[in-house]
Design a protein that fits this description.
By secondary structure, this protein is mainly α. It is built from 16 helices and no strands. It is globular, with a radius of gyration of 22 Å.
Length: 422
């Protein structure tokens, strides 16, 4: 029995590290290709044309957040007996929800055309609605792969689509310097993602199987959607605060420092939460659940502690070497923002844990606390300067995440002890 438990823990640990490595490699490859494409765009397009494409894609990304309704998490957490009924219900919800999001995007495109006289941006935003017709056909397959702990496959498919998007963008921009060249690849590569997902997982809708109750799945999914929207707000409103209090020049320095300092680590923290979620669902026993959580926390502290230390101490070396001497002034900002690496990782763990125990609504409330405290602390710091604003964001994030993570850790240990006695 002990040997079997140890083997399970070793297998889970290996699976977690393999999944994180896959997502990390995909993110690194994505960013390298993106940098190369940005160079091509900068050389081929004038700022006005880039601005039209940026407006379109910014609105598209904000609206697409709404499409991430969290019912797919129910597929990962479902028992073997309930899996097919949950998949059937999720499939129908995905189609209805994606069509609703497509309608919202069409309304936004109409508003751009009628009220803001942005005809080209409105046309491109309307055309991008086609993406939502590709998503529902592969989402169930995606979450079934995650349930089977095939995270490297999911990461590889996502990276393949993203890199194809970037390469196609660079090719089109080189031969056709037009805003459409930046926007169209988002639509053209969506079928690639769909085909790869359906090849990786052969599931198909079974009309003879009764779907799971829609209300439970929608309530759970809505809470996760709220959490994702709050995360998107936290990752975008900070730029507006900097711009409002300190001006566009300070925003440029902050934007660069954020992407060079915490952008990559933040993406890895999100990936870490995605990787560990299937392992927190349906553990084989309370002992394994406790050991798994201890391993996850220890792994996060080690990995993100090393990444934070590397970014903090190596920033004076790699910033002028990679980005140029003109960004040396942003080194203190990069160092400060990098300190949020461990809190973001702990927040991802807490979020995955709450979703695994069917407490997605509490996860949403925790996300709201982090969003408010981080942005309020940044606003207070911005009264004094850019360094103080960044410090406020890090402190606010750390205080909020640290507080509720500690409370959850204490409660989970108490619950495990009570169940062990039973």
């Amino acid at each position: 029995m002990t040997i079997a438990t140890t083997d399970n823990q070793s297998s889970s640990a290996h699976s977690i590290m393999r999944g994180l490595l896959a997502f990390g490699s995909a993110e690194l490859a994505n960013r390298i290709v993106r940098i190369l494409v940005v160079i091509v765009i900068a050389r081929q397009l004038v700022p006005e044309l880039v601005g039209v494409a940026a407006l379109t894609l910014s609105l598209f990304e904000l609206i697409r957040v709404i499409a991430n309704i969290g019912v797919g998490q129910k597929i990962i957490a479902a028992s073997d007996q309930a899996l097919e009924s949950v998949c059937n219900a999720a499939y129908r919800i995905f189609w209805c929800w994606c069509m609703l999001v497509a309608a919202i995007q069409l309304i936004a495109a109409g508003a751009l055309f009628i009220f803001f006289d942005q005809g080209l941006a409105a046309q491109m935003l309307a055309v991008l609605c086609g993406v939502y017709f590709c998503m529902p056909g592969g989402l169930v397959q995606c979450f079934r792969l995650m349930r089977s702990k095939k995270l490297p496959t999911v990461a590889r498919i996502g990276a393949t689509q993203t890199i194809a998007d970037h390469l196609l963008t660079g090719l089109l921009v080189f031969f056709w310097p037009n805003p459409w060249a930046i926007v169209l690849p988002k639509l053209l590569t969506a079928p690639l993602w769909l085909i790869l997902m359906r090849r990786a997982e052969s599931w198909s809708f079974d009309p003879g199987s009764a779907p799971a109750p829609y209300r439970d799945m929608l309530n759970f999914g809505a809470a996760i959607l709220v959490t994702d929207i709050l995360l998107a707000l936290r990752n975008n409103l900070d730029k507006l605060i900097i711009s409002a209090f300190l001006g566009v020049s300070a925003l440029g320095s902050y934007y660069f420092a954020f992407n060079a300092g915490i952008g990559i680590v933040g993406a890895l923290a999100t990936a870490f939460g995605t990787v560990i979620y299937p392992h927190l669902c349906n553990p084989d026993g309370h002992r394994q659940s406790k050991d798994m959580m201890q391993y996850i926390i220890a792994a996060a502290l080690l990995i993100f502690g090393m990444l934070t230390a590397a970014q903090f101490f190596l920033a004076p070396i790699y910033v002028p070497l990679i980005f140029g001497a003109q960004w040396v002034h942003a080194i203190p900002l990069i160092q400060i923002l990098s300190l949020a690496g461990i809190p973001l990782a702990m927040g991802a763990i807490a979020s995955a844990y709450l979703r695994a125990i069917d407490r997605a609504s509490l996860d949403a409330w925790c996300g709201l606390c982090v969003c408010i405290l981080a942005l309020v602390a940044m606003g207070i710091g911005a009264q004094s300067g850019l360094i103080e604003a960044a410090t406020g964001w890090v402190l606010g994030t750390t205080m909020a995440v640290g507080t509720y993570t500690l409370i959850l850790a204490i409660k989970s240990q108490l619950n495990l002890k009570e169940k062990a006695h039973v």
